[in-house]
Write a structure and sequence with these properties.
By secondary structure, the protein is mostly helical. The protein has one domain (22-197): Hypothetical protein af1432. It has 9 helices and 4 strands, in the order H-E-E-H-E-E-H-H-H-H-H-H-H. Strand 1 and strand 2 (30-32) form a beta hairpin. Helix 2 (43-51) runs antiparallel to helix 9 and helix 3 (73-83) packs parallel to helix 9. The longest helix is centred in the last third of the chain and has 19 residues, at 138-156. It starts with a helix and ends in a 7-residue tail after the last helix. It comes from Sinorhizobium chiapasense.
C-alpha cells in the first residue's frame, strides 16, 4: 500500500469517527458510543469529566455558603468512597464512571429514557473493564448512594421536607458537604484513585 493510499484511509477513518456517535476526550482519543468496549479512555478523562459535571442538573444551593454553588459528580464519588467501608471504597469512587462520557442525566428524566439508560450502562461497564475495576456488592453501593443523596438533599438543595421516594428512609451521613471547585474535585479524585490503587496518575 502506498503512503498516499494509507494517508487517505486514515483521513476517511478519522472523519467517519469524528462525525459519528463519538466524542473527543481530553486525552486526545475518541470515545465511540457504538463501540465503548474498544474505546480508549484514561483515569484522567474520567476524573476531569466527572469534576466538570454538576450533580442535580446544577441546581445546588449550599446551606453552608448560603448561595447557589457548583457541586460535581467527582466530589460525590470521592466523598462516598470515604463514607463506605474500605473494601467498597474503589467501587464507590468509580460507581459513576459512565457519566464521564454520558453526562449526569437526573434520575427522574432518566426513568423516562430507558434507551439512554441502557447506553449509559454499557459505557459504564466498558470503562470499568478498561480501568480494571469491579463493582463489588452493588446493593451496598446503591444504599450508600441513597445515603449520599439524602446528605446532598440536606446540604445542597432547598429542600423543605417534601416526601421523595426510597430516599425518605435514608439517613444522611454525619459529615457536611462543602462544595469544591472543579479542578480541586478532579485532583481529589485522582489522589483517591492513587490511594486505592497504589499507583500513580498524572494530574494534567
Amino acid at each position: 500500500m502506498s503512503d498516499a493510499v494509507a494517508i487517505e484511509r486514515m483521513r476517511e477513518s478519522t472523519i467517519r469517527r469524528a462525525i459519528g456517535p463519538t466524542i473527543l476526550l481530553g486525552s486526545g482519543t475518541y470515545f465511540d458510543f457504538l463501540d465503548p468496549e474498544n474505546s480508549e479512555i484514561t483515569i484522567e478523562d474520567v476524573a476531569y469529566g466527572l469534576a466538570y459535571e454538576g450533580r442535580c442538573a446544577g441546581q445546588c444551593y449550599s446551606r453552608i455558603f448560603g448561595r447557589r454553588a457548583f457541586y460535581s459528580v467527582a466530589q460525590h464519588c470521592v466523598l462516598m468512597s470515604h463514607a463506605v467501608e474500605p473494601a467498597l471504597a474503589l467501587s464507590a469512587l468509580c460507581h459513576e464512571v459512565g457519566e464521564a462520557v454520558c453526562g449526569d442525566m437526573t434520575a427522574p428524566l432518566k426513568s423516562l429514557n430507558p434507551e439512554f439508560k441502557a447506553i449509559e450502562k454499557r459505557c459504564e461497564a466498558a470503562i470499568l473493564k478498561r480501568l480494571g475495576v469491579e463493582i463489588i456488592d452493588p446493593v451496598a453501593i446503591k444504599r450508600a448512594d441513597v445515603r449520599m443523596l439524602a446528605t446532598e438533599r440536606r446540604d445542597l438543595l432547598p429542600w423543605k421536607g417534601e416526601r421523595w421516594t426510597v430516599e425518605d428512609c435514608a439517613l444522611p451521613y454525619d459529615f457536611e458537604i462543602i462544595p469544591w471547585e472543579p479542578s480541586v474535585a478532579a485532583h481529589a479524585f485522582l489522589h483517591r484513585w492513587n490511594e486505592l490503587q497504589g499507583g500513580e496518575a498524572s494530574h494534567g
